[in-house]
Amino acid sequence: MEPSDVVQAAIDAYHDHDLDRCLGYYAPDVVVRDADGNLLMDGAEAVRTRYARSMSDNLLLHYDIPNRIALGEWVIDEERVTGFTKPGSPDVARAVHAQGDRGGPRRRPRRQA
Questions:
Q1: pLDDT tens digits, residue range 21-67?
Q2: What CATH number does residue 108 fall under?
Q3: 14 contacts: CB under 8 Å, gap ≥ 6
């Protein structure tokens, strides 16, 4: 499976609200940071907690990928996120998702808002 296929499979699983399948594409030691480098999530269990809440709070959440760059083991996605239903949420959020294989069997996503 190519790195871009792994990224797309995780997105597809998220869209299907299949949390276990989605997290199966994440390394146990995944680290997620914002655009300023601030730690948002540290470890797969932190991602599980946040994604579970996001899935239950925003049933229509959807990631569009207008641009994807795949180079070797690195994949960089421009994300356009819609379907927020929680009051006070934006209509659209934009993010960059960069991930690469650093010697482990699973990818380590880094999402930047």
A1: 999 998 898 888 887 888 999 999 999 999 999 999 888 999 999 99
A2: 3.10.450.50
A3: 22, 51, 55, 61, 63
* Closest C-alpha to 55, from 86, 94, 77: 86
- Nearest by Cα to 94 from 79, 107, 105, 83: 79
Q: What angle do CA 67, 71, 76 make, to 5 degrees?
A: 35
Q: How many domains does the chain have?
A: 1
**From its phi and psi, is residue 46 left (phi > 0), alpha (psi between -120 and 50) or beta?**
alpha
Q: What is the pTM of this model?
A: 0.80
